[in-house]
Design goal:
The protein is of the alpha+beta class. It has 3 domains: about 80 residues, Helix Hairpins (Orthogonal Bundle); about 110 residues, Immunoglobulin-like (Sandwich); about 100 residues, Orthogonal Bundle (Cytochrome Bc1 Complex, Chain D, domain 2), CATH 1.10.760. The chain has 8 helices and 12 strands. Strands 3-2-1-5-8 form a 5-stranded mixed beta sheet, with no helix packed on it. Strands 4-10-9-6-7 form a 5-stranded mixed beta sheet. It has a two-stranded antiparallel sheet with strand order 11-12. Helix 2 packs antiparallel against helix 3, helix 5 crosses helix 6 and helix 6 packs across helix 8.
């Protein structure tokens, strides 16, 4: 019965820590229901039993009941202490990552997620982790407060600029899970979404070596379409429009073949080399009229993704 209720009211729990959180949550829920029934039931019963029968009824002098007072003081205290120590135990387990944890560096920025793995591989808005292994996530922010929240894994941690915070989890089921920012961080806070891919060991090793298979397949089928997806998922839409409207960075509409003037007085034609250099070394050429706010995507986007972006930009005429 308890398992059925949890399935109805709680999301899946594909991590080793999720069951601990859910068990305590359900204990508090059942406890609240029981006490609600007792208190509300007693209030209704006493209101009926002791209601005023006539104008001559007088409230009797009521003495205190020591036994009752001890019971309603001690029993809640015991229950509260059970919840406290239960929660403290689970919290300590959740805060200390195992020594053999696989470490992923996370950088949050308006309005995207960047993930870096031990071998230097990076990904944008899609985190890849191996199944069945403890994952320690070390996080920092490039700008404002953000918050890392994996609801299915029951883990959440604020990300603070200028310092590192961390959490850990261990996935027990392969699949794709939602990651979101739960600290308001500006205009596109609601779009700061990502996915966490949990993969088997062999599949994960192949990902680190080659990148995901679907990426290569998508490029072979339609590079411009893949470029549009990279544009949406890598955070490009936060600064670059594709309809000609002004944003924090130059619009991509009709940009191909134009000559851009830079703040240092030089200029360059928008071609393959220019776009690749702008993605890898964005601070090298600042277009006149814009601020140098774009972060480097070197290592964050694979060559195939950059080529897809170039193919997409060519279509925006």
């Amino acid at each position: 019965m308890n398992e059925l209720i949890e399935r109805i009211f709680l999301p899946p729990r594909p991590s080793s820590h999720a069951a601990n959180v859910d068990n305590l949550f359900m204990f508090c829920t059942y406890l609240s229901i029981i006490f609600f029934v007792i208190v509300a039931g007693a209030a209704i019963y006493f209101a009926w039993k002791y209601k005023r029968k006539s104008e001559n009824d007088k409230t009797p002098h009521i003495e205190h009941n020591l036994t009752l007072e001890i019971v309603w003081s001690v029993v809640p205290l015991i229950l509260v202490m059970i919840v406290f120590f239960w929660g403290l135990t689970d919290y300590l387990v959740a805060r200390v990552a195992p020594n053999d944890s696989f470490e992923v560096q996370v950088t949050a920025k308006k309005w995207l997620w960047e993930f870096q793995y031990p071998d230097g591989t990076k990904s944008i808005n899609r985190m890849y982790v191996p199944l069945g292994r403890p994952i320690r996530v070390v996080m920092t922010s490039d700008d404002v407060l953000h918050s890392f929240f994996l609801k299915d894994f029951r883990v959440k941690q604020d990300i603070v600029p200028g310092r590192y915070t961390d959490l850990w989890f261990q996935a027990t089921n392969a699949g794709v899970y939602d990651l979101q920012c739960t600290e308001y961080c500006g205009k596109d806070h609601s779009k700061m979404l990502a996915k966490v891919n949990v993969m088997g060991p062999a599949e994960y090793a192949k990902f680190l070596a080659e990148g995901p298979e679907e990426l290569k397949k998508a490029f072979a089928e339609n590079p411009a379409k893949l470029g549009a997806e990279v544009y949406a998922n890598a955070g490009c839409q936060s600064c670059h429009s594709v309809d000609g409207s002004k944003n924090q960075g130059p619009t991509w509409k009709g940009i191909w073949g134009q000559v851009h003037q830079f703040t240092d007085g030089t200029s360059a034609k928008v071609d393959e080399n220019y776009i690749q250099n702008s993605i890898i070394n964005p601070q090298g050429q600042i277009v006149k009229g814009y601020e140098p706010i774009m972060p480097t995507y070197q290592g964050a986007l694979r060559d195939i993704e950059i080529k897809a972006l170039i193919a997409y930009i060519k279509t925006l005429q």
